[in-house]
Amino acid sequence: MTPPRTPFARLAARWNPPLSTVRRATTTALVMSVVIVVTGGAVRLTGSGLGCPTWPTCTDTSLTTTAAMGWHGVIEFGNRLLTYVLAASVGWVILAARCIQPVRRDVLRLAWGQFALVVANALLGGITVLTGLNPYTVAGHFLLSTALITLAYLARNRTAPAPAPAGAGDRASRVLARALLTACALLITAGTVVTGAGPHAGDSGDIARIPLDWTLVTRVHSALAWTVLALALLLHTRLRRTEAPHAALHRARLLLAVLVVQGAVGYLQSVLGLPELLVGLHMLGSCLMWIATLHVTAGIKAANGPSTQEKDRAAACSTR
User: Fold this and answer.
1) How far is Cα 103 from Cα 240, in angstroms, rounded to an integer?
2) Which of 5-14, 250-259, 279-288, 302-311 has the lowest mean pLDDT?
3) Which band of pLDDT confidence, cut at 50, 70 and 90, is reported for residue 307?
4) Residue 232 CA: distances (Å) to CA of 142, 154, 287, 289, 294
5) Taking the alpha carbons of 152, 114, 231, 256 in that order, is the dihedral positive or negative?
6) Phi, psi of 73 (to 5 degrees)
7) Beta carbons of 303 and 165 less than 8 angstroms apart
8) Angle at which helices 246-271 and 276-303 pack, to 10 degrees?
9) 145, 16 in Cβ contact below 8 A?
């Protein structure tokens, strides 16, 4: 018998993890993809964006932060170090999905996609520092993080037990779910524009802002928020009228709860003059809102009936 030649194949020949290990790995990667957004927000909101003034080293003469750079350097460099923790969590997913038998190729593809996004975001973060916190690269940094959260959620969802088909997959529900997902994506994108045009530049120095009327872009952002809330309410009403299963209704109610809290935080931060703590909570809420929206959409898609890929997933789950 020909021995395995690749490192992955050699490891798989010795380690066959249970599905629970793959689930824990995907959950860890999802949590870390949110944590890196929150810590990145802390860097920005504490004015530590240029705490390390260059990249990939912290200074021209030091790889790490120095005592002379104070807390700003510690905060910025600490966020850079968390990127390695995030990369390790994604690596865990790759190894677990490759070594489980049968190989979870669907999860593996998503995990490699996450790894590519981690590398791309690290490079974009470096460009952001080298360009003096250019607001457009900062916005792109956040959007790439949202894409990472998307792949991390999908990988986690693939390792969950496949839901049984139910009555939540009618055409109107699917159309509403797609509209909700699109509106939520637009809301998050508009949020990056609001941030890029707003007062929190990420550093105490003179940092360029997106040259737009901040009041106007805030109103557009608010209108999109109301649109997302209206679509979520319509979807919840549709699910109730079609006697959708409890699981689908629970996901819709969870999304509504997240939207209400996120809206309240957004309103308070605008009234109180954008205090840093509330802005940070709003960034966390953005991540949770996106995950909750993906959760609702995934549930309705699954309720429409399992695809061939989902049948394979169910079979894999049943054998572990």
Assistant:
1) 38
2) 302-311
3) very low
4) 24, 20, 17, 11, 12
5) positive
6) -65, -40
7) yes
8) 160
9) no
Question: Which alpha helices (H) appear in the chain, and where do they start and end?
Answer: 7-14, 19-45, 70-99, 105-130, 135-159, 171-197, 214-241, 246-271, 276-303, 308-318
| 86 vs 318: CA distance, rounded Å | 30
Mean pLDDT for the stretch of residues 264-283: 94
Residue 111 makes CB contacts below 8 A (sequence gap 6+) with 29, 90, 93, 94, 97, 155
Structure tokens given for 204: 């105490």
CA end-to-end distance (rounded Å), the chain: 27
- Which residue is listed with tokens 């912290």? 58
pLDDT at 169 over 70: no
Tokens standing for residue 259: 């939207």
| pLDDT tens profile 207-232 | 999 999 999 999 999 999 999 999 99
The token duo for 298 is 């995934």
How many other C-beta atoms lie within 10 A of the C-beta of residue 256?
Answer: 17
**pTM assigned to the model:** 0.91
Q: How many Å is the Cα radius of gyration of the chain?
A: 21
Residue 172 has pLDDT above 70, yes or no: yes
- Round to whole Å and give the CA distance between 92 and 94: 5
Q: Which residues are CB-neighbours of 155 under 8 A, at least 6 positions away?
A: 26, 29, 30, 93, 107, 110, 111, 114
Query: What are the structure tokens assigned to 236, written together?
Result: 């919840």
Q: What is the mean pLDDT of the chain?
A: 90
On the question of pLDDT at 139 being above 90, the answer is yes
Q: Which of 184, 186, 266, 283 is nearest to 231 (CA)?
A: 184
**Which residue has tokens 């805030």?**
218
* CA dist., res. 159 & res. 29, Å (int): 13
